[in-house]
Every structure is written in structure tokens, then in C-alpha cells.
Design goal:
single chain; alpha/beta; two-stranded antiparallel ribbon; 10 helices
């Protein structure tokens, strides 16, 4: 993973409109989501560049999760149409945030959206304050729909979302990011990725396997078994994702402490 992938997002910048806008914006998700009538909005995962060379980072607070991210492998990269659609969604946001917000509001105004659940980000995350604020405006104007997400953007949510959240927005902080240490496992709703589904229950956590909505509406804390992708399971090595992150944070602390003239400040 070269440094070229670690690029800041470019929120708010107005770029030339170069492609036809995707429609509809909300689609059926995987079998779990589709079975429970949940629609989803998605963008590319983590950092990279589009086919035209535009660089992005949609998960600026990602940590060890990057190593076992299912959205960076499998069907997400195997099928060109999936990759293309994710990029088109992100391009719409980056090139014309106001236009995207208007289009999303129009789609959510349809009668069929009454009582629906929308999962924000099957891949990607709330990569900027401007983008997050747009979603909050959308939620407040469409109270007939319930929105939910998993996120690692702890700092952004603590500052921008938690003080005054829309009543129809539910979220779960996903462990394995740069800011795990800012979460209180007693008060914050969190989820963790376990090596197996059985390990979730053995730890006394609660699984969302039967219905993804259990992540935000069921008992907590929430666990999920790792995807059955062998090379990713091998990298996980029987650990929880949060354990991988703690190991990485400690290794960084030790490295920083050994550098002459530098005092470790813990994980960034």
C-alpha cells in the first residue's frame, strides 16, 4: 500500500461535469439488506483514484479495518459495473454536492419511501463535514424515512452529529479505526468484527446476522462474524478487529517512543 493512496478528500470543490448522473441513487443491497427491505447508498471504499485519475479518500479515519475490508475485494472489484457505479456516486457528490442533495431529496419524496430504511455507506464513510452536513439536512427534510450507518468517523460525529442528531438517524461506531480510543464502550453504541459468528455470542455480544437493523435497533454491543474470504480471514488471524487496532496502536506508540527527540502521544 503506497503513500499515493493516502490522499485527502476534496469536499466542496466544483469540478467540470463529465458524466451522466446515476439514477436512482438508492439501490437494493446485499441479500441481508434486500431481504429486510433496506435500501442503500454507497461510494468507493477507502482511498484510491477513479478511472480518470481523480484521487479520493472516503474513509479518512480507517485503521486496521483497511486490511480486511470486504468492500475492497470480492464483488466490489471483480465486477466493473459495481466499481463504475460507486465511482459515479462519489463523482456526483464531489462535483455537485448541491445537485446531489436535491436529487436525493427528490428520490426520498416518493410515496414508496414512507417507512423505509436507508443504510448510508455499504462502502465508504462520511469523509467530510460538508458531505455529512448535507446528509443531516436530507434526513431532517425526509422524516418519513429512517437512515442508519456504521461509521469510524468518531471525531466528526462527536462534534457535528451527536449534539443535535435528526430523530430519524441511527448509527453504530465501528471499531477498528484511528479513533477507537475516544469511544466509551459503556455509553457509545459500538460494533466489532469477530473471526466467527460463534465468537460473537461466546464474548457475550449480540449478532446482527439475521437483520442488519439489529446493529442500530437491537441489543448492544454488536458483533458480526468475518466475511468468508479466506485471505482476509488469514490476515485477521482469529482476532477481533478491535484487537488488531489495539496492537497497531501499541506498535506505533513503541516506534514513536524510540525516535530521538520525539514524545509519543498515542494513536492519532
Amino acid at each position: 500500500m503506497g503513500e499515493e493512496n493516502h490522499q485527502d478528500p476534496i469536499p466542496g470543490i466544483v469540478l467540470p461535469v463529465t458524466v451522466k448522473r446515476p439514477s436512482p441513487l438508492l439501490l437494493d443491497g446485499n441479500e441481508n439488506l434486500k431481504r429486510n427491505g433496506i435500501l442503500q447508498w454507497t461510494i468507493p471504499a477507502w482511498a484510491g483514484k477513479m478511472d480518470d485519475g481523480t484521487r479520493y479518500n472516503t474513509c479518512p479515519s480507517a485503521g486496521e479495518c483497511v486490511k480486511i475490508c470486504y468492500a475492497r475485494t470480492g464483488n466490489y472489484v471483480r465486477f466493473p459495473g459495481v466499481r463504475k457505479r460507486h465511482q459515479e456516486n462519489l463523482r456526483f457528490v464531489l462535483e455537485d454536492l448541491a445537485g446531489w442533495e436535491k436529487a436525493m431529496l427528490a428520490e426520498l419524496a416518493r410515496p414508496k419511501m414512507i417507512g423505509k430504511y436507508v443504510r448510508i455507506h455499504d462502502a465508504g464513510d462520511f469523509f467530510s463535514a460538508e458531505y455529512t452536513a448535507a446528509w443531516l439536512r436530507i434526513m431532517r427534510q425526509r422524516p418519513q424515512t429512517t437512515f442508519y450507518c456504521y461509521t469510524k468517523e468518531v471525531l466528526l460525529f462527536k462534534e457535528l452529529v451527536e449534539p443535535d442528531p435528526p430523530a430519524n438517524f441511527k448509527w453504530c461506531y465501528s471499531l477498528g479505526g484511528k479513533h477507537d480510543q475516544l469511544l466509551d464502550l459503556e455509553t457509545d453504541r459500538v460494533c466489532d468484527v469477530f473471526p466467527t459468528e460463534a465468537a460473537v455470542w461466546e464474548a457475550g455480544w449480540f449478532s446482527q446476522e439475521k437483520n442488519d437493523l439489529l446493529a442500530v435497533e437491537g441489543p448492544a454491543p454488536v458483533g458480526m462474524g468475518a466475511n468468508n474470504i479466506q485471505h482476509l480471514k488469514k490476515l485477521q488471524g482469529g482476532r477481533r478487529l478491535s484487537e488488531m487496532q489495539r496492537e497497531a496502536d501499541e506498535a506505533k506508540r513503541v516506534r514513536d517512543a524510540r525516535r530521538p527527540g520525539r514524545r509519543s502521544t498515542g494513536p492519532s
